[in-house]
């Protein structure tokens, strides 16, 4: 029987607060670095050597994970328990990887959900192959050469980050042809204007993504695109025939008989967890082929399975989640930097920013009662080595400590490299990553010139894998999804709703309706030159 | 006579700590919103109505600005005083706007610096016009259609953000032709691989940007590009003739007689402050024409002039800087979100992240003594409305308060807009911005369901202008540069060096040389599959 209690009601949390942090400045050495590695899916591994935790703390984190029944709750989630308590929905994104864990069946909406998601996968496979091989063409008979995803939030950040991440995928991963993928998200008309500039509409396919089918930004951008198509004067161009929808099967978008195709998700998939559903699957399959998407799903699934392990020392994502909680709730750090040493992952921090902050930026527990401890931290990040020449100054020498989560790969993904000064670029990239972890952890005193002193003691972890293959990408994605889930369980919050976005929506509607008598809305509207 | 003392040695700071924050939840109304607007350059204005400050606090902030002699120090900086104390350099980026303030002359390196920077501007004008009109062509006789900037940190983030920001510039701003601009920054070879994919080398010009001429990433990427050119087998292609350099005139890059052209900056321009020097000027002038760059300079210059005003109520950037200090040092907020409601500004937060965190992420004062108060905060951000569907959940309902800096425009920049549901996209964009400010400030209680309650009291400011013209872009850029400068003066730190990047560089070299006996470097190198 699973029980839900607040973090500060557990015995383990009280013990955790009494633990003395491990001093990485003194204690980081080669043996520790080797010992503190946990294998995850495929070649992915989590290393926490440069985190301020010792055996006592890890034992206490294990006790906390056990006391909060994190693995049991994860299993309950997989089994279809109502985990999104506020909205009374199940949480089924792990089932969108294309196969159930342990053959678990989940029935809802009159179907077995695993079967439903697999059916959508089959549709994506069939459709994407037909578009890629030219069986399905644009309305004037041209082959599709560009796909444009129109979506915002979870319908944009995850799919976009994954598409960029796979930009250099090649024959070794079964990709011999690429279709360009672009994205329109912002309601700012300048976004669509920029993306559409120079686009050959006849060979472009638009993917409209909105679970509810009512997202303001997405509908506005659809109408912008339709207007551009209608104004183009191209003979025979039928806008609807250049559009597919990804939505729930009860939404207004689903019912449009004129569009080319519709692919379905459902209310049990939160937007920020939907990258492995058709929300990410359609665009990834069109851009790189269904096989690439399938391998992403395989990686995510393998990672989901590895997260079932109860022993924290053999479960990297559980270790990551619990150390994060120690950093947040005992050491009091209000942020975490996500730093991939891979330019292809340049938008992954933006996706994980949504994933984490929207899931765990909550002030009430799952029963709606305010909590008296900190929940989700601020997440930000940019790829290394770029960040080294930017905000790392503050990370090294600022007055506050910012924990870091590094991501690195042994091999490059693309076909290009060269030597300069005795080493290749890929070797330099890795050397910098190694150097930064050690510099942050150990620092270096300069007694003569404190301006050149580094205090050290700045904690970081490292997710490392052989190569940014589709499988590894799926595993990295699921690592962070499951980390957020475990932390949410430990904090006793609902990581799957987002009521915090509602008030802004209500007030925006009020502004669009003329502000009423609200002097504040009127004054700001006036400042922005709005006329009513 | 200017004097330098730590923040906590001032009388005004003691008074400031005794002030009670203004309650924006209750106190924000139409009159306050109108009253709390400060005009800056052109149509730019700073509004601080939703900041927790009242007249008493503002008077105290004025007293603090006076006691720390912020305007005097700014004037001293303009006059060529050694403000980068650690490196013993002047700080002259304001002089790169193309004209001195009040005709101030600054002599260094055997020249009058204003004359020197103007000379470089003339070179940029001449060169960019010749490339754009086809007088200067690629080595095989093709017209230049793409420019690729190779640089990292300040040689990348600012120029890139400004180039993206000007993506929709048109005839109304004197731009009738655009040359595509791309950027290679990361030492990760996958970065260059992605950017070079599909590029017509014969019609591409590369801009190598490194002040020292020794930046590891930039030299590695240069060699990658040269290799690709040499391997291309294109007859008559002379790599050197597709390269210009932006560097200091004493650097190794400056001496290459074979390259097409060299443009100079100097040691008195920090990388993160170099967007208005040739570091940003060459690529912007090539991409959009020198006139567009000139207007950016004009906007920055006008903003620099407006920042000389001693009265905080008439100096928006001084107000912004001092309120930021109040948020950081009295209210204790460790971060600030930068939220432009403009997709064209999507990389501006990344530039301001460097600008702020690299400048003010310091733990010692300008004399090298550790300070006992917080300095620069963590900066992060994404454009609205995108962020509303992402991390705003935490900003609205998280357990911590994150101050916000909004940026908005009355008009769109591009040519495209459409109606949907009774309003245009641009109107929706502005309505959302208005709604968010008010929702964050005032909140809304829901006694029945605390999960739907918004505490409010979440402070924000708004930078607003008519339109994202080149002039306005320059003004916004200078606003943030000068904000960082004023805060650095108030904290008594040197905002113009970056010693925090050095230890990582030293250790990376050690790793590339085989790690020596260092067990830590060896173990991490082993984890990353490096062989020695």
Report mean pLDDT of chain A, rounded to a whole number: 97
- Largest sheet, spatial ordering of strands of chain A: 1-2-15-12-10-11
**CATH architectural category of the largest domain in chain A:** 3-Layer(aba) Sandwich
Shape of chain A: globular
Q: In the CATH hierarchy, what is the superfamily of the largest domain in chain A?
A: Glucose-6-phosphate isomerase like protein, domain 1
| Count of domains of chain A | 3
Radius of gyration of chain A: 24 Å
Helix content of chain A: 40-55%
CATH topology of the largest domain in chain A: Rossmann fold
Q: Could you tell me the strand content of chain A as a percent range?
A: 5-15%
What would you call the quaternary organization? homodimer
Tell me about the biggest sheet of chain A? 6 strands, mixed
Low-confidence parts of chain A lasting 5 or more residues at pLDDT below 50? none
SSE class of chain A: alpha/beta
Write structural notes for this entry.
The structure is a homodimer of 532-residue chains. With 532 residues, the first copy, chain A, is of the alpha/beta class. Chain A folds into three domains: 7-91 and 300-499, Rossmann fold (3-Layer(aba) Sandwich), CATH 3.40.50.10490; 107-297, Glucose-6-phosphate isomerase like protein, domain 1 (Rossmann fold, 3-Layer(aba) Sandwich); 500-532, no CATH class. Chain A is built from 18 helices and 15 strands. Chain A has helices at residues 11-18, 24-27, 30-35, 55-67, 70-78, 113-132, 157-165, 189-196, 216-231, 278-288, 290-306, 316-330, 348-360, 392-397, 425-442, 470-491, 502-512, 519-527, and strands at 37-39, 45-47, 107-108, 111-112, 146-150, 180-184, 204-209, 243-248, 261-265, 335-340, 378-380, 404-409, 419-420, 423-424, 460-465. In chain A, strands 1-2-15-12-10-11 form a six-stranded mixed sheet, with helices on both faces. In chain A, strands 6-5-7-8-9 form a five-stranded parallel sheet, with helices on both faces. Chain A has a two-stranded antiparallel sheet with strand order 3-4. In chain A, a hairpin with a 2-residue loop joins strand 13 and strand 14. The first copy, chain A, is globular. Chains A and B meet through helix 3, helix 8, helix 9, helix 13 and strand 11 of A and helix 3, helix 8, helix 9, helix 13 and strand 11 of B.
